[in-house]
C-alpha cells in the first residue's frame, strides 16, 4: 500500500477506536456511580483505575481512588491518556487528516463534541450531575456513530473504521469481565447476596447488556450465564463473538478489494480468536476464565499488529496505545 493510503487507513482506524473508548468509559463511570458498591455498601472507584491499568500513574498523582479523583482523572484530565477528553481530542486530530474522506457533518460534530468536553470543569463533575453528564457524552458518541453510518462512503475507509470500532469494543468487553472475576468477586458468604447481584447488574449495564440479557435469561443470573452472554451471544452487539464475526466479514471484504490485489494479511490472530470464541463458557470458566480472556486480548492485539504491518506500514510492534504515546495535547 502507498504511504498516503496507509496513513489515512491508520487515521480512520484510530478515530473509531478513540470514539468507542470514550463512549465505553462514560458508560462505566455512569454505572459505577449508580450501582457499584463494595462489601460495606460504599462506592468503590478503584476498579476503574485497575480496568485501565493506570494504578502507577494515578497513584503518583492521587492518594486515594475517590469519586472526585477518579471522575476528574477519567473525564477532563489532560495528562491522562485514558481520559474522555484525551480520547475525543485524539479522535478529532485523526479526523483532521481525513477531511477529504469524511463528511462535513462528521467533522462538525466532532468539533462541537470536543469543545463541549474541553470546557468542562471540576464543578461540572459533581456526583449529583455525573449521570446526566455521562448521558450527554454517550449521546454525542452515538451521534457520531450515526452520522458515520449515514454519511460515509462504503470503501476501504469504511472498512477500517469498522475494524477499529469492533476491535476496541471486543477489547473493552474482555477487560470489563476480567475485572469482575478477579478483582470484584465477593467473599463466599456474599455470593448471591444483594451486593453480588448489584455487581453483576453493574457489569451488564456497563456493556449495555442488561435488557438483552433479561430477554434471554428472564429469571436470575449466574456468573456463567452473564459471562456467556457478554462474551458469546451472537445477538448481543458488544459480545466478543459478534465483534469477531464482524471482523472476519470486514477482512473478507478487504481481501476481495481489487485495489488491494497482492496484499495479504496474516490471519493467524483471527483464527486464534475464533477458536477461543468457540469454547463453551462452562469450559472456559473451569479451565480459568482469566486465562481465557487474556487469550482473547492477546489475539486482538496480535490482529492489530498484523493490520498495522500490512496496512499501516508499521515495521515495529504496534501497541494499543501507540498513537497515545506519540501524540500530546496542545
Number of strands: 0
Low-pLDDT regions: 188-194, 315-321
The coarse overall form would be globular
| DSSP helical segment count | 15
Structure at a glance:
With 330 residues, the protein is an all-alpha fold. The protein has helices at 3-34, 46-51, 55-61, 67-75, 84-96, 104-118, 127-151, 156-183, 194-206, 210-216, 223-232, 240-256, 268-277, 281-311, 322-326.
List the helices and strands and how they pair.
Layout: H1 3-34, H2 46-51, H3 55-61, H4 67-75, H5 84-96, H6 104-118, H7 127-151, H8 156-183, H9 194-206, H10 210-216, H11 223-232, H12 240-256, H13 268-277, H14 281-311, H15 322-326
Helix pairs in contact: 1-4, 1-5, 1-7, 1-8, 1-9, 5-6, 6-7, 8-12, 8-14, 12-13, 13-14
Give structural notes:
With 330 residues, this protein is an all-alpha fold. The chain has helices at residues 3-34, 46-51, 55-61, 67-75, 84-96, 104-118, 127-151, 156-183, 194-206, 210-216, 223-232, 240-256, 268-277, 281-311, 322-326. Helix 1 runs antiparallel to helix 4 (67-75) and helix 12 runs antiparallel to helix 13. The radius of gyration is 20 Å and the shape is globular. Mean pLDDT is 89; it is low at 188-194 and 315-321.
Q: What brief labels describe this structure?
A:
330 residues, globular, 69% helix, single chain, mainly alpha
